[in-house]
Amino acid sequence: MLFDFDGTLIDTWRLYLESFRRSLEPHFKRLLTDPEILEYQPIAERRLLQEVVEQARFSDYFASFLSHYRSLHETHCDGLYLGTVELLNGLRAEGYVLGVVTGKSREAWTMTFGHSKLAPFDAVVTDDDVTHPKPHPEGLIAGLHTMDVEPSHAIYIGDSIFDCQAAHAAKIRFGAALWSKSTHEVDTFRKAIGMLGDAQYFSSPYFVFEGLKAWIDHD
């Protein structure tokens, strides 16, 4: 089992938006709105900043982002989604090998994982570990290689179109995490995922086991 992290296992939505907003204020000379930040498709903090600021200033802006991310973590990170701990513990009890493939930088991963109090994963692939971010399959392939698992024996669960595209490119089954979506987002997301190929849809982490059983029974 491979998982995306943000928006799948943990709710860092407010944390990321506010960290980007504050770190980019010197560049834009104002605070960006949420829709303006989302236009940059913030799936990886390094890559968003590289797209926006000049390369000579990237290190300064990245350091600023990490500083805001750290200082805002306690007030703006909304924690693990309900059922996440039970899901991961249940999978481990059933003998599943678990990994994370995330667009987070290694520094941001270390901060948030430490706060989460989750047990260690068998593989963690961050944005620092790949040349090509999702939807490229490089990160998923690297995670499977670390865990010594064939794509046909793997499932990737994530909350974005990029996650789905990466899974299909890696020839891994995809599970769509709907629990982080608002009511009006679910239908649009389901339709977009459906156009990309086969997928399972989960409204809660508690229902993932049922989906796994359906896949196994189908095989």
Task: List strands and helices in order, with pairings.
Layout: E1 2-3, H1 13-28, H2 34-38, H3 45-52, H4 58-76, H5 84-93, E2 99-101, H6 106-116, E3 123-125, H7 138-147, E4 155-158, H8 161-169, E5 173-177, H9 183-196, E6 200-202, H10 208-218
Parallel strand pairs: 1-2, 1-4, 2-3, 4-5, 5-6
Any overview of this molecule?
This protein is an alpha/beta fold. It folds into two domains: 2-11 and 80-218, HAD superfamily/HAD-like (Rossmann fold, 3-Layer(aba) Sandwich); 13-76. It contains ten helices and six strands; from the N terminus they run E-H-H-H-H-H-E-H-E-H-E-H-E-H-E-H. It has a six-stranded parallel β-sheet with strand order 3-2-1-4-5-6. Helix 9 (183-196) links the parallel strand 5 and strand 6 (200-202). Helix 1 runs antiparallel to helix 4 (58-76), helix 3 packs across helix 4 and helix 4 packs parallel to helix 6 (106-116). It is globular and about 55 Å long. The chain starts with a strand and ends with a helix.
In short:
With 219 residues, the protein is an alpha/beta fold.
In terms of quaternary structure, what is this? single chain
CATH class of the largest domain: Alpha Beta
The run of helices and strands is EHHHHHEHEHEHEHEH
Shape: globular
CATH topology of the largest domain: Rossmann fold
What spatial order of strands do you see in the largest sheet?
A: 3-2-1-4-5-6
Main β-sheet description = 6 strands, parallel
Mean pLDDT: 95
Tally of helical segments = 10
Strand content: 5-15%
**Ends: how far apart?**
17 Å
| Rg on CA atoms, Å | 17 Å
Pairing-aware structural class of the strands and helices?
alpha/beta
* Count of all domains: 2
Return the CATH architecture of the largest domain.
3-Layer(aba) Sandwich
**Count of strand segments:** 6
Please estimate the helix content: 40-55%
